[in-house]
């Protein structure tokens, strides 16, 4: 792109030629009409040429063409012709007036021209500023924003160097720069003000160095060459671009700081959640185990056989519960580290539901479990262990609150997804409980003390979200609760060799193989 | 003859419990608390099976699995607190026979140990050729599968997959092993093949495919063909 106001080589010559042509044209036209029109009309024709030349050419050419027009008119048409002498005083006054008018017109036209050029230029610059601002809004990283800023500056100026400050006060992008350039950038950053011609600071250098940002909040600097003290609007544009870039960079830094603060808050919440898990959820089963085991140790044979069996059973059950809590805590920490810890592979929900149900069948709730999986469900992409843990937590939760009623797990196809629901006919939840359901350590008022969902449901929700799915709770109409996991449906992988792997009776091909 | 089991475990409490439980089942029990001690015992008093913990004071049990496997086919059952699937899979692929995550029930350990012992020396003995469970009979010799007496029609791929699981009946076969053996080494990462074909096999063989009794899922690791 051509930098504004740059002198185009040969432009002055083209202007002069155009002015000459216009004068020749006016002279020719006047000569053609010589017999039919008066001197006044011919003077007007010359004035037209002067106006056109003044508008189309630069200021010097415009003035020259004004003088030239009056001279040519006098020479060719004012009697005595073909001399510069004027025989009539009236003609002398007319010529003087014509010169005055021509000069005035050319001066005014040149001003209009300059004003409109300036207006077009400032409009272009304003458009560039707003385009840059829009581009910076889309930038996702500081490097992207700096690159967009640099591109815009290069559009507007010839040579541009842009550096940004890193977190340690170093200059990013200063490699390969000469010492004077680096010093000028550093100076602009330290002073927080532009330096270079016309700024009152470092007027000797052939560049403007503009800090990006205001004093105290400088995030970088930009050096622009060449620069002249006279080009005030160019300097203003450089400063304006720098301030737009600064706003873009500030926005990104503020967003990053906000994310960091949010992550810190999440970490803190996780920490308190885990502390609460240790202090309450782990202590409860531990208390049962210690009480039962120490009773068996101290009282031994004095306890009845049934009593001993019951205690042993509760030791095993509570120890398993401890194991579950530990697993949940571990997975919650793993998920908090980010979704990259997920091992996502194609999974069949039939398998995951099946293995979770198989695990619980042997337990106290086993007989009350009902499982139904719609045949030929699409595969889902997920972490099998985590999905299994999610369903196990839901089933475990339902079993503990279902009373003696059945607990049903059902996997079905949904619009745009696959759903697994776990339903029970337990006491259900109050509206207040419902709101806090997925918070760690929320417990239903109606539940027995000490048997909380604890980390379980919070982990379930975290797992669902890490898979791009969601976990919803619904109160069932005739009592009970239903949790529904919905996983998004993804484009299914290709069926391996479905065309060649034809359905044949294996028995009939027995002789084909040894 | 009494079978000799080597328990490699550095935690005294668990070691004591395992010894007592195994002795109660009639095994002769040897114990080791480190990789070096275990290596020496394997060389001088070859056990019939090894129960191995992973994090040992002088090294990782995984190295021991590879070292033992390079010289003998003695069954190795891992008993570790590590529950990440990647580690489990690596050990099973390295030659471990089974993997139990702590905490586990003693009954579960004994069951897995019995299965592993039955496969002892499987490189010398012919692999399992025929199994029968819940009305399903798989006869690899005759390439015949029946359910309640009726022939079940399987595709060649379905049969190959089933045969691979039946030959290792009772043991976990990892996804990678199944994919390599049935589809070829270039397909070891295409786990979705397994999901699709296991689904088809279960639909043909299981009474309730969502709750299989023959073709069991080892979540995140592989599959196991049930025995007994």
What key phrases describe this protein's structure?
heterodimer; A: 514 residues; alpha+beta; Beta-Lactamase; 4 domains; 5-stranded mixed sheet; 4-stranded antiparallel sheet; 13 helices; 11 strands; 12% strand; disordered C terminus; B: 228 residues; alpha/beta; Rossmann fold; Arc Repressor Mutant, subunit A; 2 domains; 5-stranded parallel sheet; 40% helix; 23% strand; globular
Explain the overall architecture.
- The complex is a heterodimer of chains A (514) and B (228).
- By secondary structure, chain A is of the alpha+beta class.
- In chain A, 55% of the residues lie in helices and 12% in strands.
- Chain A folds into four domains: 11-117, no CATH class; 139-255, 2-Layer Sandwich (Beta-Lactamase); 283-336; 343-488, Heat Shock Protein 90.
- In chain A, the strands form three sheets. Chain A has a five-stranded mixed β-sheet.
- Chain B has 228 residues and is an alpha/beta fold.
- Chain B is 40% helix and 23% strand.
- Chain B has helices at residues 12-24, 35-44, 61-71, 85-94, 106-118, 156-167, 175-182, 191-205, and strands spanning 4-8, 28-32, 49-52, 55-56, 59-60, 76-80, 98-101, 130-133, 136-139, 144-147, 150-151, 172-174, 215-218, 222-225.
- In chain B, β8 and β9 (136-139) form a beta hairpin.
- In chain B, α2 (35-44) packs parallel to α3 and α6 (156-167) crosses α8 (191-205).
- The A-B interface holds A 316, 319-320, 323, 327, 330, 343, 345-348, 350-355, 357-358, 361, 371-373, 375-376, 379, 383-385, 388, 411, 493, 495-497, 501-507, 509-510, 513 and B 83, 85-86, 103, 105, 142-145, 151-159, 183, 187, 190-193, 195-196, 198-199, 202-203, 208-212, 216-220.
